[in-house]
Design brief:
The complex is a heterodimer of chains A (335) and B (290). With 335 residues, chain A is an alpha/beta fold. Helices cover 39% and strands 18% of the residues of chain A. In chain B, helix 2 crosses helix 12 (254-289), helix 4 (69-101) packs parallel to helix 7 and helix 4 packs antiparallel against helix 9. The two termini of chain B are 16 Å apart. The chains are: A alpha/beta (335), B mainly alpha (290). The interface between A and B is large, with 54 and 49 residues.
């Protein structure tokens, strides 16, 4: 093919390709009506993926899932773009306002528990447990550049340098941890190693003798040989190690939290969306456990199903954001 | 030209030159070795995982059942549309700047802007695409909106490569064609553009390589992570290879990391295949125009 002929061919193909979509119009192929659109938190994603997979295998409608984070997910959700959004923390006041302004009503459904694991290097011999106050001493904004060795945390700890690892400030896990430990959501020292990818944190802590880090329980469960888990002591109680039991029965405090989905009430009128949520309520617990989360106890599960059946709108957190140390039964039973 | 280079070679090399050559070799060897090491490492992880089921499979919570089909097809859609949009526009812009624009103030202004655009972080293009294509032009979170965004992203690369190529066409050929009575358009179409085409294809290779690896702007535009059907027209939702890889890399289970390695190999092979088409075309054209 000569250069000139090739030029002509390219021009012809180009013209044809650019006029084609104009005739087809947008969304022609997939038929938007039959798709359940979901977005939101990367923490909730593995559960959503598992439920969608099984729901579709059981003959359900098409599901699409995006991962733009809890905040990004709420932006799309309150803009009416998605039917369901996953959230690793409750809806915030600003997001409540955005949804109200757009006339989007929603049902808030807890879908599982996630424990936040606090870990140190596996050869760390001196940390047997840590109290919430000691964690606060490390992570508070005032600790920046002043708290630099383990000996400053507790008398008797060696003068080993303290290196902190945690998720980035955009993550729901960070929001919850700061609320539970420091006391103020989204407030901590800035001089810690942060990564959006929890596997990077696992690597970091496993290679640094003076390290301490926190991330979702599933990442500890998959890397138990590389890390040492720290039991957490809250108030006068005994130190508790996070496990499926201690997270589900609420004794691992304050670092276990429910994770949520929010369902658009108008979208829930579509039979395929309602069928999807019903399927989730029925099979979601087993699937959540399979992908590394802790299923809700039966009592909580029944309350969640009741809440969706009644389409109870709004958030039990009244838009206050992360709330520490509450169980799903308490939250939903209160109403 | 060939005789003078022989002359230079014959002259004895001094110590400084030898040291410089050695240094240059080390400079090229280090990144190459690191690259080979990384690719080999990934390949070892990926080999056991890549099979037909992986290529034509859909996402799954079970790493061993998960496949990459929607992401692979989505990436091909994106690259195809991006090439269709960015190459003609980029080549056209370069032609105007080199052949028509001359030294006008407008041309200078555009030139400065193109140089600046090449340095803008890719997520900014994503935000622009979200505002302009997804919202304002109401294309939705579609594969077309994604391709238009990537087109903007690679346009400066295409324009700069094309301009370089146009400059290598000797001026006397233009003058000769003009002396034979050719109009400016005839000169460009029949002399300049065919001779510059190999250089333009180099620009295409660079543009494709850049576009196929982009993640951030696609996430902003609204690429999905989970879909169990394929985009059938440019208005459909989409996912892409880098997004699937990123999703797998950040999962806690080791088996998903193996999937990510396999995904990376699929991405590399796709990119090399697309590029080798451009390289083959370029080599044929180069032989012809010499």
């Amino acid at each position: 093919m000569g250069a000139r002929r090739m030029l002509m061919t390219v021009t012809a193909v180009w013209a044809a390709a650019l006029t084609a979509p104009a005739c087809g119009g947008k969304g022609g192929g997939a038929g938007d009506g039959a798709i359940i659109k979901i977005d939101g938190s990367s923490t909730v994603y593995p559960i959503t993926e598992a439920v969608a997979e099984e729901y579709q295998k059981a003959g359900g409608a098409r599901v699409t899932i995006g991962v733009s984070g809890t905040g990004g997910g709420f932006k799309k959700f309150c803009g009416g773009e998605t039917a369901i959004t996953g959230a690793s923390r409750p809806i915030k006041p600003s997001e409540v306002k955005a949804c109200e302004a757009a006339g989007v009503q929603y049902v808030e459904l807890p879908v599982a528990y996630d424990g936040i694991a606090v870990v140190v290097h596996k050869d760390n011999a001196f940390v047997d447990h840590l109290t919430v106050d000691e964690l606060k001493k490390m992570w508070a904004p005032e600790a920046q550049k002043t708290v630099a060795t383990w000996s400053q945390i507790r008398d008797g700890f060696p003068a080993t340098e303290l290196h902190l690892f945690g998720p980035g400030v955009d993550s729901g896990t960070y929001d919850y941890f700061t609320k539970a430990i420091v006391g103020t959501e989204h407030s901590s020292r800035g001089d810690y190693t942060s990564s959006e990818d929890d596997n990077v944190l696992v690597q970091g802590v496993s290679r640094d003798a003076g390290a301490l880090g926190f991330f979702g329980f599933a990442y500890y469960a998959e890397n138990q040989d590389k890390l040492k888990i720290v039991p957490i002591k809250s108030g006068d109680g005994a130190p508790v190690v996070p496990s499926v039991e201690t997270v589900a029965n609420g004794t691992y405090q304050p670092l276990s939290r429910p994770i949520f989905i929010y369902v658009n009430v108008a979208e829930a009128k579509r039979p395929e969306v309602a069928a999807f949520i019903d399927y989730w309520n029925e099979h979601g617990g087993k699937l959540a456990a399979e992908v590394g989360y802790i299923a809700l106890p039966d009592k909580a599960k029944a309350l969640v199903a009741k809440r969706f059946a009644a389409r109870t709108p709004g958030s039990v957190f009244e838009g206050k954001g992360a709330t520490v140390g509450v169980s799903v039964e308490d939250l939903l039973g209160r109403e | 030209m060939s005789t003078s280079s022989v002359d230079i070679k014959r002259r004895g090399r001094n110590l400084g030159e030898r040291a410089f050559i050695a240094l240059s070799l080390v400079a090229i060897a280090i990144p190459l070795l690191i690259l080979v090491g990384l690719v080999a490492n990934t390949l070892v992880d990926a080999l056991g995982r890549i099979d037909w089921d992986f290529l034509v499979g859909y996402p799954s919570r079970r790493a061993s059942a998960a496949g990459i089909f929607p992401a692979l097809i989505g990436s091909l859609w994106l690259i195809g549309l991006t090439a269709l949009i960015a190459l003609p526009l980029g080549v056209g812009a370069a032609l105007w700047l080199e052949e028509y624009g001359g030294k006008s103030r407008l041309a200078g202004f555009i030139e400065v802007n193109i140089a600046n655009l090449a340095g803008v972080p890719s997520i900014i293009y994503g935000l622009l695409g979200l505002g302009l294509f997804v919202r304002f032009l109401d294309l939705g979170r579609s594969v077309l909106a994604g391709a238009l965004t990537l087109s903007l992203l690679v346009m400066p690369i295409v324009i700069m490569a094309t301009r370089e190529a146009l400059r290598t066409v000797p001026g006397h050929l233009r003058e000769a064609a003009a002396a034979l009575g050719a109009t400016r358009w005839q000169v460009i179409r029949q002399v300049v553009l065919p001779m510059a085409l190999p250089g333009v294809l180099t620009g295409a290779i660079l543009a494709i390589s850049r576009a196929i690896g982009e993640t951030a702007p696609l996430i902003v535009v609204g690429a999905l992570t989970y879909m169990t059907f394929l985009p059938a027209d440019p208005g459909d939702p989409f996912t892409a290879l880098p997004i699937q890889i990123y999703n797998w890399v950040s999962r806690p289970q080791e088996a998903f990391l193996v999937n990510a390695a396999a995904g990376i190999m699929v991405l590399l092979v796709t990119m090399l295949t697309l590029n080798s088409v451009a390289v083959l075309l370029r080599n044929r054209l180069q032989r012809r125009t010499r």
